[in-house]
């Protein structure tokens, strides 16, 4: 049923530490490795030796941020690696839009899942998610998303230390934490309280369960002296949209002639 | 958003088809026998043809029937219900008109209402999405319904009503563009709210060097320089040319047929823009739309 449960007994989710993530993509690989062999259809790749693309449940972006000058003294720009996977939102818009009942949120632990046997691959849930956490597998035509490794965390066949999500288990920097964010006494809840964990895009009203820990202020020892001339080229380095192809290219050329 | 031809064809043609069914259901005109047959063939070809086109958009067509299950929460499911009930109800009404020259007005009214509900449900699939601020506004259902009624009035040979409705449609569409251009900033999502990082934030590196489902489907950016031209073309073909044809040549078969074709071509352009101009907030994670966010 794609109605959301009023409350869930637990709120299982991830806490992602943007201060310690080094952007190594180990969690991306571990996630794809585990999930391509377990829950649901494999995570397919297209054109691996040409222009590769594929389905991932977890992707790492890297952002640059330029703090405002302090007392007219420019501050060092900084890089933040930013893992992005499903936030298992309490008010998940991806669930309520689903026409087939394939998308659901579990009342017992709050995990948001797709029942692939019922999914018709309309893609509406991916449109409804603000965070890009859902990808339609191009081979199977069904919706894939982070399962919070539901087939690991309760799996008695695994050694106890492996009963956590593959991405958490593998992260060499300890930047991903797993636990019950509904229990204020849990390790993850304490970590969020201590470090000031935040919701992504709170204005979207999704009430994410996953929390992000902001980067700590940088050490200024031995930092290079800033003069204010450093980023003159930055505005010219914005990403450029690609030229359209096929039907679009035709529309483009036809309109150009008018 | 990626302007997928199947979805554009679906929403345009089925909208016009259900608009025609609406007027036939209201008895504007009351038709029987062979003439009725002609009208209903056109209406069903448009409505059902459009629905078929939307099925091509599905990744896993064999589960399409399951979309009837979630009418309590999902507009897509409600659309499926309304469409089938409208088609069945109007099918019975048409059957009685064509073969028994009998018009059951209540059945027609019910069918008309269901036809309009179908178009409204379709529009709500888009209008409900907070993630796409341009669509998330009342004018989205407004122009879907106006387009369906205007096309239906043209097809059902109600020329005077059609001209009024075409003007209403043009006004609603223009308002939708004007409001739509502000919606992204109004919604308030920025690369800073998306990342919660401090200072001026920009994308430094994408997750992968290639494209993926998200960037293909939702971080689609078309050369916006064409948008103004296309808007003018859409308005001309959708409203101005049809009105001109009907006014100058009168409500005869050929000018009305040409007016319908022009109207549908204009609507294709309008629907193409509806998708191509729509900014999904996930684009912020890919460094897109930062020019549209609030400063
Ligand atoms: S992050 Fe996206 S896919 Fe995950 S629960 Fe929230 S809205 Fe749904
Ligand atoms: S793609 Fe599948 S899970 Fe998503 S809304 Fe459509 S039917 Fe539901
Ligand atoms: S919890 Fe599992 S499915 Fe989700 S991102 Fe981590 S490894 Fe992938």
Short overview:
Chain A has a single domain, classed as 2-Layer Sandwich (Alpha-Beta Plaits), CATH 3.30.70.20. Chain A has seven helices and eleven strands.
Give the secondary structure arrangement, pairings included:
The complex is a heterodimer of chains A (258) and B (295).
Chain A: E1 12-17, H1 26-37, E2 45-46, E3 53-54, E4 58-66, E5 78-85, H2 93-96, E6 103-105, E7 112-114, H3 124-128, E8 134-136, E9 143-145, H4 150-153, H5 166-170, E10 176-180, H6 187-195, E11 211-213, H7 246-257
Parallel strand pairs in A: 1-11
Antiparallel strand pairs in A: 1-10, 2-3, 4-5, 6-7, 8-9
Chain B: H1 5-25, H2 33-55, H3 75-100, H4 105-127, H5 139-155, H6 159-187, H7 191-195, E1 200-205, H8 213-217, H9 227-249, H10 253-276
Helix pairs in contact in B: 1-2, 1-4, 1-5, 1-10, 2-3, 3-4, 4-5, 5-6, 5-10, 6-9, 9-10
One iron/sulfur cluster (SF4) binds next to helix 1 and helix 5 of chain A.
Commentary on this structure:
The complex is a heterodimer of chains A (258) and B (295). Chain A has 258 residues and is an alpha+beta fold. Chain A has one domain: Alpha-Beta Plaits (2-Layer Sandwich), CATH 3.30.70. In chain A, 20% of the residues lie in helices and 18% in strands. Chain A is built from seven helices and eleven strands. Chain A has helices at 26-37, 93-96, 124-128, 150-153, 166-170, 187-195, 246-257; strands at residues 12-17, 45-46, 53-54, 58-66, 78-85, 103-105, 112-114, 134-136, 143-145, 176-180, 211-213. In chain A, the strands form five sheets. In chain A, strands 10-1-11 form a three-stranded mixed beta sheet. Chain A has a two-stranded antiparallel sheet with strand order 2-3. In chain A, strand 6 (103-105) and strand 7 (112-114) form a beta hairpin. In chain A, 44% of the residues are buried. Helix content of chain B is 66%, strand content 2%. The relative contact order of chain B is 0.14. The radius of gyration of chain B is 21 Å and the shape is globular. Chain B has two domains: 1-128, no CATH class; 157-295, no CATH class. The mean pLDDT of chain B is 93. Chain B is an all-alpha fold and 295 residues long. At the A-B interface, strand 3, strand 4, strand 5, helix 3 and helix 7 of A face helix 3, helix 7, strand 1 and helix 8 of B. One iron/sulfur cluster is lined by residues 97-100, 102-103, 114, 119-125, 143 of chain A.
């Amino acid at each position: 049923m794609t109605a959301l449960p009023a409350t869930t007994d637990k709120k299982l989710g991830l806490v992602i530490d943007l201060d310690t993530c080094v952007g190594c993509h180990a969690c991306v690989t571990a996630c794809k490795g585990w999930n391509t062999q377990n829950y649901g259809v494999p995570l397919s790749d297209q054109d691996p030796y040409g222009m590769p693309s594929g389905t991932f449940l977890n992707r790492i972006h890297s952002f640059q941020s330029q703090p405002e000058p302090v007392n007219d003294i420019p501050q060092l720009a900084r890089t933040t690696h930013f893992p992005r996977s499903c936030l298992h939102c309490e008010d998940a818009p991806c669930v309520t839009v689903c026409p087939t009942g394939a998308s659901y949120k579990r009342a017992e632990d709050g995990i948001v899942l797709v029942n692939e046997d019922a999914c018709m691959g309309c893609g509406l849930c991916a449109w409804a998610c603000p965070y890009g956490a859902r990808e339609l597998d191009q081979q199977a035509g069904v919706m894939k998303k982070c399962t919070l490794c539901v087939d690991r965390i309760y799996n008695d066949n695994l050694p106890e230390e492996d009963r956590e999500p593959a991405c958490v288990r593998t992260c060499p920097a300890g930047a991903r934490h797993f636990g019950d964010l509904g229990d204020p006494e849990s390790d993850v809840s304490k970590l969020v309280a201590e470090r000031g964990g935040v919701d992504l895009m709170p204005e979207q009203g999704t009430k994410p369960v996953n929390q992000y820990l902001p980067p700590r202020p940088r050490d200024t020892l031995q930092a290079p002296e800033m003069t204010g001339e450093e980023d003159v080229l930055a505005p010219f380095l914005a990403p450029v949209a690609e030229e359209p192809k096929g039907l679009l290219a035709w529309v483009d050329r036809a309109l150009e002639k008018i | 958003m990626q302007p997928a031809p199947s979805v554009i064809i679906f929403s345009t043609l089925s909208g016009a088809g259900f608009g025609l069914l609406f007027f036939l259901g209201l008895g504007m005109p009351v038709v029987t026998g062979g003439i009725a047959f002609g009208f209903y063939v056109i209406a069903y070809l448009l409505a059902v043809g459009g629905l078929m086109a939307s099925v091509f958009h599905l990744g896993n067509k064999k589960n399409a029937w399951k979309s009837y299950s979630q009418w309590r929460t999902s507009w897509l499911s409600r659309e499926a219900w309304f469409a089938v009930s409208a088609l069945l109800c109007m099918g019975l009404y048409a059957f009685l008109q064509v073969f028994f020259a009998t018009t059951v007005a209540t059945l027609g009214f019910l069918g008309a209402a269901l036809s309009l509900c179908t178009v409204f449900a379709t529009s709500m699939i888009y209008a409900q999405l907070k993630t796409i601020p341009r669509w998330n506004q009342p004018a989205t259902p407004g122009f879907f319904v106006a387009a369906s009624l205007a096309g239906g009035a043209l097809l059902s040979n109600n020329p005077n009503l059609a001209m009024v409705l075409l003007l209403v449609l043009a006004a609603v569409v223009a308002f939708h563009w004007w409001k739509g251009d502000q919606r992204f900033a109004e919604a308030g999502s920025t690369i800073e709210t998306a990342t919660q990082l401090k200072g001026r934030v920009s994308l430094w590196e994408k997750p992968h060097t290639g494209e993926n489902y998200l960037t293909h489907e939702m971080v689609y950016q078309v050369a916006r320089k064409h948008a103004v031209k296309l808007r003018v073309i859409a308005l001309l073909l959708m409203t101005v040319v049809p009105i001109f044809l009907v006014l100058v040549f009168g409500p005869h078969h050929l000018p009305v047929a040409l007016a319908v074709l022009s109207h549908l071509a204009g609507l294709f352009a309008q629907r193409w823009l509806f998708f191509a101009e729509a900014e999904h907030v996930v684009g912020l994670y890919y460094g897109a739309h930062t020019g549209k966010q609030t400063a």
